[in-house]
Structure prediction request, 682 residues.
Amino acid sequence: MRPDLLNPLFAEIEALKGVGPQLAKALHRLGLVRVVDLLFHLPTGAIERVRAPHATPALLGRNVVLEVKPFDARQSSGRGPTRIYAADGDGNVITLAFFNNPGWAKKQLPLGEAKVVSGKLEAYGDQWQMVHPEVLGTGEELPLREPVYPLTEGLTSRRVHDLVVQALERAPQLSEWIEPSVLGREGWRPWRSAVAELHSDPEAASSRKRLAYDEVFANQLALQLLRQVSRRKRGVPLQGDGRLAARLNLPYDLTGAQRRVVEEIRGDMAQAAPMLRLLQGDVGSGKTLVALLAMLNAVEAGAQAALLAPTEILARQHHATLLRQLDPIGVRVAILTGREKGRARDSVLMGLASGEIDILVGTHAIFQEKVGYRNLGLAVIDEQHRFGVSQRLLLSAKAERPPHLLVMTATPIPRTLTLTQYGEMDVSRIDEMPPGRSPVETRVISEERLGEIIDGLGRHVDAGGQAYWVCPLVEESEGTDAAAAEERAAVLRQHFPGKVGLVHGRMKGPDKDAVMAAFSANELAVLVATTVIEVGVDVPNATLMIVEGAERFGLAQLHQLRGRVGRGQGKSTCLLIRGQQLSETGRARLALMRETSDGFRIAEEDLKLRGPGEILGTRQSGEAAFRLATPEMLGELVPLATDDARLLLDRDGGLAGERGQAARLCLYLFERDQAVDLLRSG
Ligand code: ADP
Ligand code: MG
Prediction:
């Protein structure tokens, strides 16, 4: 339960004076739903005004507040502006121009009546001009410095600020949760005063840093609580004897890295404290085999294992791979996704409950409440970026006897983001590729040469090769992306009739699977796709990857796409098609792709090399969790907050002391409340 102290902050925004349905709607569009959201909606800058008795050249270009007396009004014919001529205190003529609503302008500025106008002073011939000034009565005050907020239609910065002032009035003083030595060194103000300062002085760097720190601290503390509570539970120690693994018929040896990681996992699983392990390995590094061996370890020890894939396509692919390898040795594998219905579903559920099924593969359906396992010993989450902290929480910290947990990700993220996303987990890395891979040759080509690219694709296809063609992200909307992909597929089908397949996120599951299956079986030579193929798909014969509008992808995403090829024996190529207008940053980003195939280096650079707003879908998972802390701040704040959180829990694991209680407030404030719940249940 949230402490009463914070209730005023979590009230709906409509509780503020003057917020009716229409204003609320505009605020909601900005994600401002509760009072607290408004406090964290920080200004991006400030507007400065000067009050002056009359216009002077020194004031040109500045925001000036002047008292004037209108003496003439003229309305241009057609769409021209309404001009109102007014005299300032020195008798200078100031032209006030209004481009719409002439009636309104004339009513605001009746001839002969003194008014105060405020706006940017510009030169107009040898006269002075203000376009769309604000108009006030002579007694009215206008702040000389005013914060500027991110806005949407129907809102002004002043309106937002007025609401913020109300919100600040409701904000309580909160006792301090930051370690005194950190607070002292940084010279930070108390929380409430820091918020207030930022809303009047957007440049107050120290207070901005403090709020960002609070947010990161809440996140890191929540993860560590999750770890503490999970590790305190008794799971099931599982020690396989290797008899099933020995019977596997693998066409290759494990790489050194695979071997090491499998040992780390087996070591964890032998303990009663449940495993919490993250397995990082670049695309193609062979994580599936590691998962398979971990699951066999569980089965050998008499437990069940479950493998969660993020998409239907991947679940089916994993299922097929596992069946091929496990059926011959008598391990029973089943699949469960949203598409298994009726009898098929019932029989899987029964098999799980009775223990007849050893390994279950599927999408999120496999961890729904209705799915009861006889003895689930290991849960493996593949390509987890759609499986967040709260789901991990349900699996481990909230379970009576939590299963061992292995999370696998191919998304190479910078170290700081690993900490914010998986701070509760131990990390294993596969840092070695299976032998015999030749690096993918990467080329950047202008879209003007589309004809040549299609000719090249033709030669590749004639020689029996297969290729992916990935269409650009148009918007962050699957609908528009799908339309672009359909268009591209239509063009390619004219060149290669009967050989082109299309998959995109708007298609129904079975239709997608059918296309993927046909491509896997080499019945299709070209697969046109939106980024749905980004994760996991494995077709070794496909050795050409073409990415259209490459500059619009995040580097980490391009890296993942490129990882789809270079999986078989043949030499592989990745063509990055770029648009005709490419910024400096865009150029540097694509050059980096040509230069390196090191996913972790690419991820670090991706964080640095972003033209603001230039690229869609590039927020790395993990950044998205923060609204106050920017990517540039994370590098410094994450290690600091992580240590602070650890120290606090070492001293006061139940968050019962004075600082512990304060830290609970911080968790609630940033809505990491699930972590507080853990303290009660754990
Ligand atoms: P990812 O880590 O991206 O999930 P996969 O598990 O799909 O990678 O493996 C990529 C490819 O490498 C697969 O075709 C797999 O059979 C193969 N592979 C895995 N381990 C080895 C190994 N030790 N030696 C050779 N090939 C391997
Ligand atoms: Mg994989």
